[in-house]
Design goal:
The chain contains ten helices and no strands. The protein is an all-alpha fold. The protein folds into two domains: 41 residues; 215 residues, Orthogonal Bundle (MetI-like fold), CATH 1.10.3720. Helix 5 runs antiparallel to helix 7 and helix 7 runs parallel beside helix 8.
Length: 258
């Protein structure tokens, strides 16, 4: 393996990423200095200073509550999506019904369902529900496409040795579906965070990033509002990074191919 060539490819990409972040910060500072949008854009340093003074006492509990709600929704939504994708492969006649269900979940305005869930169940159920719904469509589509990408020759081999539909699924299709499924899960992780925060906006709870964002907006604390938005983005990025690391560990052959 030519490590020098790899370094030559990685270093420019890293420098490009750092240059992009620096350009974004400079643009942000310029917009803040020009008081664009009526001064509702604070400088990066104002936001960081506010976050520092608010400290973990504000961000920690809200971060933890939102992360827990997003994790629950992520697990429920993805387990249901993967289970239905497997059923589609095992029982092809139900594909139309499952596909319509997935499209319905994707197209339905979830903010309209959230208040109904809040009234019926109360508590943090809307947070978990919306997080799960935001994950469902992406994961189901990715898993179905992955299961169908299995090598036809391997499937024929299992069939020739007398293996049934379940054997083909367990020995070939599930393994073939891993790259697509994990790629879908990487997208689903930030989506779950988004769903959890939107669920917190609906009310009925007293903590979470969405609740803290609402309180900061109500008090017109602009730097704190931006700080909470950055915390939400950091939580979404953390979810993506964790799933990406798991994908790299679970699929060593994809790294070799890359």
């Amino acid at each position: 393996m030519n490590w020098a060539a790899i370094r030559q490819r990685l270093v420019p990409s890293r420098l490009g990423g750092l240059a992009g972040i620096a350009a974004l910060l400079i643009l942000w500072e310029i917009l803040a200095a020009m008081r664009v949008a009526g001064g509702t854009i604070p400088s990066p340093w104002q936001v960081l200073d506010t976050m520092y003074h608010d400290g973990w006492a504000l961000y920690g509990p809200n971060f933890e509550v939102t992360a827990w709600g997003a994790l629950q929704g992520f697990l429920w939504g993805n387990v249901l999506a993967i289970a239905l994708a497997v059923l589609v492969v095992l029982i092809p006649p139900i594909e139309m019904l499952v596909t319509q269900l997935a499209i319905l979940s994707y197209c339905t305005p979830l903010l309209a369902l959230g208040p109904i869930i809040l009234v019926v169940f109360g508590g943090r159920t809307p947070t978990v529900f919306l997080a799960a719904m935001y994950c469902f469509f992406t994961t189901m589509v990715g898993t179905v496409s992955g299961l169908r990408s299995a090598d036809a020759t391997s499937l024929d081999l299992i069939r020739a040795y007398g293996g049934g539909r379940w054997q083909r699924l367990r020995r070939v299709q599930l393994i073939a579906a891993l790259p697509n499924t994990l790629a879908a899960l990487k997208i689903a992780a930030p989506s779950a965070v988004l769903g959890a925060i939107i669920g917190e906006y609906l009310g009925g709870i007293d903590s979470g990033i969405g609740v803290a964002l609402t309180a900061a907006q109500t008090s017109y604390n602009v730097p704190r509002t931006w700080g909470m938005a950055l915390a939400a983005a950091a939580l979404a990025g953390l979810g993506y990074a964790i799933v990406a690391i798991i994908a790299r560990l679970a699929l060593p052959w994809t790294r070799a191919e890359a």
